[in-house]
Amino acid sequence: MEVSFKTFDRLSPAGKILLSFVLVAVLGSFLLAMPIMHKPGVELSYLNHLLTSISLVCVSGIASVSIYETYNTLGQVVVLTLIQIGGLGVITVLNSSLFFLQQSLPLREQYMLQMSLNR
Fold it and tell me: Which of 18, 55, 64, 92 is most enclosed, with most CB atoms within 10 A?
């Protein structure tokens, strides 16, 4: 079975950036919702984790729960990772990976990187 990314290729650079942030936020909310990430006795709805994850990726600083009182050390590592990904931007992380792998960035991706950095 072959997976096709034609729909993703048709998106504008801004659409790709938005989609990447949404995917990171949803993945982060799934990770934060895992019981292994919470301190004992803490139970929250998935929406609280989703709001927290979106806030962390967008680096807005809004949280519906106290990070320290809700998440254990592993959960706080996930929180810090989401902040870093949001602060650096997904496209910048991918570009850095390509740089370290000594691969050139195609022109389309260079344009996406410029759009994500507002240049």
Answer: 55
Q: How far from 75 is each of 23, 38, 50, 71, 100, CA to CA, in Å? A: 18, 7, 14, 5, 29
Domain for residue 3, yes or no?
no
**Count: domains in the chain:** 1
pTM of the prediction?
Answer: 0.70
**Any domain includes 95:** no
Distance, CA of 93 to CA of 50 (rounded, Å): 22
Q: Residue 116 falls within a domain, yes or no? A: no
Q: Which two tokens stand for residue 88?
A: 């650096």
Query: Under a CB-based contact definition with an 8 Å cutoff, are residues 67 and 39 in contact?
Result: no
Residue type, 12: S
Q: Tell me, what amino acid is at 22?
A: V
**Span 79-117, pLDDT tens digits:** 999 988 887 766 666 666 666 665 666 778 777 777 776
Domain that holds residue 32: 13-89
Q: Tokens 């680096």 map to which residue? A: 59
Provide the token pair at 64.
């519906």
* Any domain includes 96: no
